[in-house]
Amino acid sequence: MLYATADGDVASGREPRRGGSSKRADNWAAALHRYEEFARAHGHTPRENTRDRASLPGVERRLGEWARYQRRYADTLTGFQKIRLDVSPAFDWDPLDGLWEARIADCVRHVQDKGRLPYLNGTDRGEFALARWLGRQLRQLQMGTLRTDRAVRLTELLSLVVGKTPSP
Length: 168
Hints:
The protein has 168 residues and is mainly alpha-helical. It is built from seven helices and no strands. It is 64% helix and 0% strand. The protein has two domains: 86 residues, no CATH class; 67 residues.
């Protein structure tokens, strides 16, 4: 209940009520709201690491670390905290899995729109990047290192292409 009260206070902009929530609950709710606000404002969730570390602002890095901490210690979170993270539009328990799902969905849309798999098209950077990602997945499928659920999804994608004629 303390976390729910704190979350409501932070969301409404009210000062925390005396005796209504603890400092820890207030801090957790405020951190989640900062995390969600960052995602809304920047169009991506905060990262804690990047290839060019100098380009990563400290605020973003700290929010990314906060999210990693939530994932790592999920078993110590309260029921409210887990539910609140589940419904958060910004938080993902497995961000790499979410990214994989987004990429396979992009491939499916590409096949539905163009009637073919993406290829290394130098004039279309988006298609080029998608084709590189797809190539890595197909290589993992061929080597038998792709997770079973992902192998099934990739096989379904390939079955969409069978029998289609390429569009101009």
